[in-house]
Design a protein that fits this description.
By secondary structure, the chain is of the alpha/beta class. Helix content is 38%, strand content 15%.
Amino acid sequence: DEKFIFAGKHAYAGLFLNNAGVDQTKNFCSQLCMIVAGIGSPRGFERTVADVGLISCASFIFPDHHDYSCADIEKLEQHAQDKDCFIVVTTAKDWVKLQPRVQQMPS
């Protein structure tokens, strides 16, 4: 019986507006952002955000596989207004869960 052990590693692929298009890292370098993540190892993600030159004004860390609610979005929006920080950086995995909630919010 052969046994296989696989290991994975996340790697920075770029900063994309709404998870699409061209890498925008150079356009947002040195700007304030809020980090939003529901992942198992958020500290690595926070380090990556800092390493590419963004400045975190806040980190909102949720449990891994978090099911975001409209209340979560309202809290993030309120913090953005309070801190005048309107760039939100999240993982592609979290954006898939956040996007429908963001679209449900009243304008």
